[in-house]
Amino acid sequence: MSRSTIVALAGVACLAATAGSAGAIINGKDATQSYSFMASIPLSAPGLDLKDGVCGAALIDPQWVVTAAHCLDMEVGSIPAGKVRIGSDQRKSGGTVRKIAQAVVHPRYAQGSPNKNDIALVRLDRPVSYKPIRIAERPGRPGTPTRIIGFGITEFERNPADWKMSKRLRQLDTRRGAISECGPGFASSTRLCTVSQVPKAMACNGDSGSPQIQRGRDGRWELIGATSGPGAKSPSCAEGPGLYTNVPAYADWINKTIRKYS
Predict the structure, then answer these.
(1) What is the pTM of this model?
(2) Do 81 and 12 contact (CB within 8 A), yes or no?
(3) How far apart are CA 181 and CA 143, in angstroms?
(4) Of 59, 65, 58, 69, which Cα lies nearest the Cα of 21?
């Protein structure tokens, strides 16, 4: 498998054979509450015969969402459909749809295993009325309960042509993992190791860019991560662990970018 193919799989959120991340969450469950900040970006990868892919994102400003950089990487075959759906627990209906007005990929993003600086911002053509999720000051310490959500696949398939993205939003309770719980060289100060709280469960194809959230001091959800890829070499998504871009670590870049282009 070529390097570009590997990253392309990640572009639709594959944990197993990608530099990207997790899916409609293997062995997760339907969302148990409303996540109005959740966004989805339809995409295709013609070179892999993927016609109905998706990446996730999180609304962090009335006119901006944050996602994984590899979701917007044309070099790896991910072609966004030019729109974003915000605030729905259905992948193809509900919520509010906006056109992509601008995409800003982190200047030091690089493909790899793992990807580096795997974060991007998308400006919507018009603001939405949903309340953005707050970016945490910092992720909780290893062991902190977290949750991941996404529209990725629920059953692992190696062939992208066989990937069936979830129609409904899925969730999985997870926790911050220690750097040592991911494979050597995967987790770091900017890449969060993520471990499922139930066996044989993790994000998979189609979950790239989707949020990892934790409870803040006020009990409200706050954003700590964006699905980036597998946290170790693994035969399938369900084996875990997962790897998430540490969104709070990029808060300065996010704020400067929004101010520059708004």
Answers:
(1) 0.88
(2) no
(3) 11
(4) 69
Residue in 106, 95, 192, 207 with CA at minimum distance from that of residue 151: 207
pLDDT in tens, 22-38: 334 655 666 778 999 99
236, 200 Cβ separation under 8 angstroms: no
Q: What does the angle CA 13 – CA 15 – CA 17 come to, to the nearest 5 degrees?
A: 105
Q: Which two tokens stand for residue 20?
A: 């990207």
197-252 tens-digit pLDDT: 888 889 988 899 999 999 999 999 999 999 999 999 977 787 889 999 999 999 99
In one-letter notation, the amino acid at residue 226 is: A
Distance of alpha carbon 239 from its chain centroid, rounded? 18
Domain architecture of the chain: domains with CATH: 1-262 (2.40.10.10)
Q: What tokens were used for 40? A: 């989805």
Residue with tokens 């953005």: 132
Task: Report which of 73, 24, 23 is spatially closest to residue 45, judged by C-alpha positions.
Answer: 73
Residues in the chain: 262
* Helical (H) or strand (E) element with 243: strand 242-246
- Under a CB-based contact definition with an 8 Å cutoff, are residues 122 and 102 in contact? yes
Consecutive H or E run containing 252: helix 251-261
From CA 17, how far away is CA 55, in angstroms rounded? 16
